[in-house]
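Feature request disguised as a bug: please show the residue count (139) next to AB hydrolase-1 domain-containing protein in the output. Example input:
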Amino acid sequence: VTVREGEHTVDGFRCHYTVAEPATSAPGAVPLVLVHGFGFSSSHFGKNQEAIAAASGAPVYAVDLLGFGKSDKPTGVAYGEALWSWQVQDLILEVVGAPKVFLAGHSAGGLVCMNVAAQNQGEVAGLCLINPAGRYGSV
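Example output, currently without the count:
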């Protein structure tokens, strides 16, 4: 398994991610996108990312949500579900580029993954929620 760091730009904001790529891809393997919770970063998944890639034969991406880790921390934006869902959707389209993905999210990342899955049902092969946060703020 090879682990590398990458960046993509979303509307002028620099978004960081890591990807663990297996030495050999399994036929039909579906990439996994890991989304951290509030106060964490992609490094939250560091010990598991390589093992999952090796076991599944698929690339495993871990994103730093805007405002966290090595991603930009812009001012004047509303941090929350809408911003981060948009960021994850862009990562899937522009970086992952697979017809389907699995999503796994921890805490607020679970909320983001639920939102992305609801908006992109045809492109999400499955959803794993790890102690997901509920909707917060004004409803």
